[in-house]
Amino acid sequence: RMAMKRLIVPALATLSLLLAGCGDSGAEQDTPRASSTGGTSNLEAVIGEIDELSIADKMLDNADLTDPFDGAGAYTIFLPDNAAFEALSAAQRKRLESKEGRPEVIAFLTHHIAVGAVARADLDRALDANGGSIELESVVDEPIEVRKIDGQIFIGKGDDAPRLTGTSELASNGVVYVIDGFIPSAK
User: What is the pLDDT of residues 77-126, one digit of tens each?
Assistant: First the structure.
């Protein structure tokens, strides 16, 4: 099995402080970098504009989880598409879309968010430079594994890991990627 290089993608504020403090980033060329250039809308607005994420958007709204995406911090978010939510049982989906389901939404969501904004071109470069496998620092203790196999990009561990659908949108404070399933927790 090929050794995986662990990549830590810092938040924009931390990256800016490091660059300002040392004058030279010293960062390796194959590390995805947080980017200060992005779209004009914040993550919350971008999620709401992607048709494939209408169920995820409704779920985030109903669970009162849109504030973290309003602007503070930069994140890379891998959100399941509508088909992934539609594959859940009606009871599971109803629970996730309710205020009472907020703890479950938080639990699933934390495994889908990486720290820092990683644009698609940076993700592709890092995967190519590191033998097709990298890890991104997540907002929880468990990193997010990203693998490129036969031209497809998989997010998470295992044979049933979701894939990028091809939709990614830059926001002013991050990047939203649409995936075709849920990232399973390794714990």
Answer: 999 999 999 999 999 998 888 888 889 888 888 889 999 999 999 999 99
Q: Where are the alpha helices (DSSP H) in 23-173?
A: 43-49, 54-62, 82-86, 90-96, 102-110, 120-129
Name 111's bridge partners: none
Q: Which of 69, 50, 58, 73 has the alpha carbon at shortest distance from 105?
A: 58
CA 131 distance to own-chain centroid: 21
Three-class SS state of 61 = helix
Residue 16, SS3?
A: helix
Neighbouring residues of 58: CB distance < 8 A, sequence distance ≥ 6: 97
- Reading the block at residue 162, the tokens are 């979701």
Q: Which amino acid is at 47?
A: I
3-state SS assignment for residue 176:
strand
The answer to whether 174 and 77 have CB atoms below 8 angstroms apart is yes
| DSSP-assigned letter for residue 35 | -
Which residues are paired to 75 by β-bridges?
115, 174
Q: How many C-beta atoms lie closer than 10 Å to residue 100's C-beta?
A: 12
Nearest by Cα to 150 from 168, 132, 164, 125: 132
Which pTM does this prediction carry? Answer: 0.78
Using an 8 Å Cβ cutoff, are 97 and 86 in contact? no
